[in-house]
Amino acid sequence: MKMKNIFKQLIVLTVLLTGCSDFLEEDNKGGISNDDFYKTETGYQTLVTASYNTLRTMYRNTPWLQLAGTDIYNLSRGFAERGLMEYEQLYPENGQVKTFYQNSYNAIQVINMGLYYNDLAQMSDATRKTLKAELVFLRAFYHFHLVEQFGGIVINSEATLAPRMNLPRASVADSYQFIIQEMESALPDLGTGKSRVNKATANHYLAKVYLTRGWDLGSAGDFEKARTYATAAIAGKNITIPFEQLWSPTNQVNEEVIFAVQYDAKSISTESDGNNQQGIFGPYLGGSELNHKYMNGNIFPSWNLHNFFTENDARYEATFMLTIYDQYFDYYDASKDKKVIPIRAYYPRVWGREYSSADSLAWRNEHRSQIASNFRFYPFRQDENRYRAAFESDMFMPVVKKFDSPSTRAIFNTHASVRDIVLARLAETYFIYAEASIGLNDFAAAAQYVQKVLDRPGNAKDGGKLLPNVDLATAGSQTAALDAYHIETAKEFVGEYNRWPELRRTKRLKDLVGRYNYDVKRIGVNVAFMGLNGQDKIYRPIPQDAINLNEAEIVQNPGY
Question: E strands along 309-429, which residues?
């Protein structure tokens, strides 16, 4: 099932035993062989660091497979990754699918090398056990993400010391069994430090794996296990940090973060070695002369995503940048009086009607002294076609601000962010419990856990209780409950890397994309999803090179 490039990497990694790769070679300056070096505690730590560093490789660029082709993101004006966004032109040769596949297996191989030397390296037994547990979890983590995208996968659980060409694809059930065994075996020996894989991380992902297997294999017992592990990950913690504060650039390692790809300015070698999360979601804001952040405009938040937010929901203003001052990052300067800074762009929003000329005049009168010479209004349009009509223009819609990296504001680069990429947080654990409850048809419990997230301090602008769009507890069916649930996760997790797997596992992907995705509606959802022999595209395609180069017989996923 592996691609030509992966086979080459496996052979190259065999050579690493006598000729180290660049990112490890920098630490090996003593003239000893790599085999001897990795058996020292210092040398072994380079393998552990390299294993964690694979997360940066995986998430440094737009993780298309986690985001594209869903209900809350649309094509950008550049039509980037049209195959993934619209399905109709998604083929086994897709470059992003191939990159994801290759990066995942490359990461697994690096981790396998770390596990190979775990028994050989000179260190205390306690350190050895903890590091082994961290690496075992990371290996299972990558296998899980492969299962989410492709179904049954090739399981790679050993360091490649010689080329292997016959790599059979495991069944979906066997793939899950491997992942669960790995994570459960790692859990007892993990620590509690927030800077590494810890017990909360393992509990959270075990809940997510059991949840996903519950939907894929139809097992009520898995939903119960998901709730058990979610409860362990929650560990009695409540949702206590206001949403704007949760995503403050000065509050990154907070109590609600469970697992993140970590960055800071000192950890990157060049200005372009950060990540691009801050610049993905929204249109281009202009060139460097404007001193705004660099937006690559890959993905546009959809019209319906904006409509999911209700008027009383303070997360809307905390998620989107609705006022752009003279310079974009002026917003974060506490020393600057926001009542006197010039305003370049304003994105007004009213609910239930169009923003009127009277509204505009009133706002202008109030902010007359702040209106810049190139100021523009960009009001939200109640009609989706009018909203989309301007998508060729710069700045036409508010960009997502949750991931802004003001410490690198001077760098006009697509990868200027040194913000951590949050992969798991407490609110998601609560939602995992809720989703597992829906799987058990326990809609009352699902509603209770969703409400615990909505009750975050400050979520309701009026100081009262923020309610869900649809009452989960009274849902008439599991499908209705899931649809209500997905509206709530859409608002809570805008821009976070989890939407496509969530819709796929609950089997709501096609229906919700057909209902809400502007681009797919234009094509027709049945045309977009229909593949070969009339089969729907329910997974991503296995890269064709992976099939061609594997001596084992590999069956392509349905629809391709």
Answer: 323-325, 343-346, 371-377, 421-425
